[in-house]
Design a protein that fits this description.
Elements: H1 2-16, H2 20-30, E1 35-40, E2 55-61, H3 65-77, E3 82-86, E4 99-105, H4 114-124, E5 125-136, H5 142-158, H6 168-174, E6 178-186, E7 195-202
Parallel strand pairs: 1-2, 1-4, 2-3, 4-5
Antiparallel strand pairs: 5-7, 6-7
Helix pairs in contact: 1-3
The structure holds S-adenosylmethionine.
Residues 13, 17, 40-41, 43, 46, 61-64, 67, 88-90, 105-107, 110-111, 162 line the site of S-adenosylmethionine (SAM).
């Protein structure tokens, strides 16, 4: 199973997630990113071609060595410098408030503890920094949701812990992000896997952090 997860799955994800139809969603979620961006679950670098010119550098977090190897040629061809800064989105080796933005695509579904990872993203984002997220998740249609619940155990086994039944918007809200954009629609393909959420959320000031400048 480790061989499948480490060596085979990253190639399958690269194929399945690299379709032109998904490319349009990727372009849409990357629009507006700027400055230093941390990308959690960087995978094989399928978002690289979609980062806008305002992005100065990308800090990539990705545990799968095979995915990092596939990403290497995309990184070499990219306009923007990419630095691998860690293996685990639950514990980022980055300073507080050191990033202008964050990107997660199809990763909140897989993270073992997405709330812990979102708390880490809030920590490393500066106040007002944006998290852009493109995720698949639980459909509001009861018949699709029923299938998602049925298929979830198998999906988790075959896709390294990927859940079909997570609710990205609820997770972002519960993590304390302020939603600025939330679009949901079915993409191309079977509905249990393609109910997509495209969200942009900002990181509010931490509790107790002064909001304005010094008085008077
Ligand atoms: C479905 S893939 C999506 C990859 C990429 N974001 C994309 O859109 O093509 C989920 C990714 O999350 C990564 N991942 C799993 N656990 C992780 C963790 N604890 N921290 C960071 N990334 C993780 C996986 O290795 C995989 O690359």
């Amino acid at each position: 199973m480790a061989l499948y997860r480490e060596r085979v799955l990253p190639h399958l994800v690269d194929l399945a997630c690299g379709s032109p139809a998904l490319g349009r969603w990727r372009a849409e979620v990357a629009a507006g990113l700027a400055g230093t961006v941390v990308e959690v679950g960087f995978g094989s670098g399928l978002n690289l071609g979609h980062y806008p010119p305002e992005v100065a550098r990308i800090l990539a977090v990705e545990p799968a060595a095979t995915a990092r190897r596939i990403a290497a040629r995309r990184i070499a061809a990219a306009r923007v410098p990419v630095e691998h800064v860690g293996l685990d989105g639950h514990s980022l080796g980055l300073d507080d408030a050191s990033c202008d933005a964050a990107l997660s695509t199809f990763t909140l579904c897989t993270l073992r503890d997405p709330m812990a990872a979102l708390a880490e993203l809030r920590r490393v984002l500066r106040t007002g920094g944006k998290l852009h997220a493109l995720e698949h998740g639980l459909s509001p249609d009861p018949s699709v949701a029923r299938w998602q619940h049925r298929l979830d155990p198998l999906q988790r086994k075959l896709a390294d812990g990927c859940h079909l039944t997570r609710d990205p918007l609820a997770m972002l809200r519960d993590a304390g992000f302020l939603l600025e954009r939330a679009d949901q629609a079915y993409g191309a393909g079977p509905k249990p896997w393609t109910f997509f959420t495209l969200a942009v959320a900002s990181s509010p000031a931490a509790r107790g952090t002064p909001q304005g400048g010094p008085p008077g």
